[in-house]
TrEMBL record:
Belongs to the ACC deaminase/D-cysteine desulfhydrase family. It comes from the Bacteria. This is 1-aminocyclopropane-1-carboxylate deaminase. The lineage of its organism: Bacteria, Pseudomonadati, Spirochaetota, Spirochaetia, Leptospirales. Gene3D superfamilies: 3.40.50.1100. Keywords: Pyridoxal phosphate. One of its GO terms (molecular function) is D-cysteine desulfhydrase activity. The keyword Transport does not apply.
């Protein structure tokens, strides 16, 4: 038991996506946790427990000033009584944002650099004599895994409960060799959450899947083992089909070749289409997606489920997908502003 009262209850809320009820999809609504910090609450709580246990009162953090990581960790740890020293970076020193304000407001000291490399160098130097815990970028640390493990424990129970109520009649005519009861899907940012889940659910009937956003699959896989060591996990590999990449819709090979040439133009266009899609999704479901993570993967996920249900041969083996919405959406409330007519 911790003596601070700041940590709120972090309930696990699983729901259907409104308007999509017949689909085999459930959403784990970590986006409903306070301030849109999402699953970062669970990771930061694990770090906090580690700090308490080891009687550490100061933390040196570094990362992107507009990101969800630095905003949530500075805020949560500061409010838990920890002294926060922050090294941040941003490409645009004049940009103001929700996350940036949280970071500045919850750091006892802060310095901000124009690029990531410089900030990293400063962190490396400062951590040599730092009288506290120096957290690597994205908070990769055993403590993070401790927080996630208790989340997975609770989540496993919740998923089982929700399967017990909905699977009874399906079980009857299901083939006997069905070992996977459910799929747990999430995005891979640093990959800490995915690797923690991969480790925890390894011997269970829940299959964990991670979706690459931004980074290339091969690049990330080359860092996997090192990440696992830093998180205190077994160095187990994900099997084929557990790490997914987003395949763009209706894109012929010729078109993607063209994209390479006119990259900036089509990138801008994509973003506009994506923004509109998030806006429409919010209007239809009351769920706000975050443009870098959930907003990138939800559209392909819905398409995939739709195709699975159209194909009669796959009906038997389709396991329900539990998608983890990790939050981060408050930074992007402008996506759902009503456009005022001028
Ligand atoms: C941090 C974050 C992630 C990625 O988590 P990792 O453990 O770094 O892979 C995904 N979505 C949101 C909203 C996040 O804030």
């Amino acid at each position: 038991m911790h003596k601070f009262t700041f940590f709120p209850e972090l309930p696990i809320q699983i729901s259907e996506v409104p308007g999509l009820a017949p689909f085999n999809l459930r959403m784990i609504r970590d986006d409903l946790l306070p301030f849109g910090f999402g699953t970062k609450w669970r990771k930061a709580f694990g770090i906090f427990q580690y700090l308490q246990k080891n009687q550490i009162h100061k933390v040196l953090l570094w990362g992107a000033i507009h990101g969800n990581y630095l905003a949530s960790f500075t805020c949560i740890l500061r409010r838990s009584g920890i002294t926060i020293d922050t090294i941040a970076y941003t490409r645009d020193p004049h940009l103001r944002s929700y996350n940036e304000r949280l970071v500045r407001g919850h750091s006892h000291t802060i310095s901000c650099y124009a690029n990531r490399k410089e900030a990293h160098a400063v962190w490396l130097d400062k951590k040599k004599n730092y009288p506290g815990l120096s957290l690597p970028e994205f908070g990769i640390h055993v403590g993070q895994n401790l927080g996630l493990r208790s989340f997975w424990q609770e989540l496993e129970k919740k998923i089982s409960q929700s399967l017990d109520t909905s699977l009874d009649q399906k079980d009857a005519n299901s083939p006997t060799n069905q070992k996977i009861k459910a799929i747990l899907r999430m995005e891979i940012g640093s990959g800490a959450t995915f690797l923690s889940a991969l480790d925890y659910f390894k011997e269970t009937s829940i299959l964990v899947q991670g979706v690459m956003v931004g980074e290339k699959k091969e690049t990330w896989i080359s860092k996997r083992e090192d990440l696992q060591k830093q998180l205190g996990l077994r160095t187990i590999a994900a099997s084929e089909g557990q790490i997914l990449e987003i395949v763009k819709e209706n894109k012929s090979k010729i078109e993607s070749e063209k994209d390479k040439v006119t990259k900036t133009v089509s990138f801008g266009k994509q973003t506009q289409v994506q923004k509109q899609w998030i806006y429409d999704f919010y209007r239809n479901t009351d769920i706000l997606l975050e443009p870098i993570y959930s907003g990138m993967t939800m559209n392909p996920l819905l398409r995939e489920i739709h195709e699975m249900q159209l194909s009669p041969s796959s009906v038997m083996q389709t396991s329900p997908i539990f998608y983890l919405h990790q939050g981060g959406q408050i930074q992007h409330l402008d996506l759902i502003l009503e456009k005022e007519p001028r």
